[in-house]
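note to self — DONT lose this again. spent like an hour looking for the file last time. sequence + predicted structure for the chain T wanted, 38 res
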Amino acid sequence: MVIAWWHHDWSTVADTPLKAAQRIRSSARKSGLYDAKT
């Protein structure tokens, strides 16, 4: 589920991998997914 969500989010990003990763982590932290993983 998280992978599918991440893949969907990644596919919509037209930016550098670093910026995309930071944005994904930021949005994940807000939704609580990242906190659950760490």
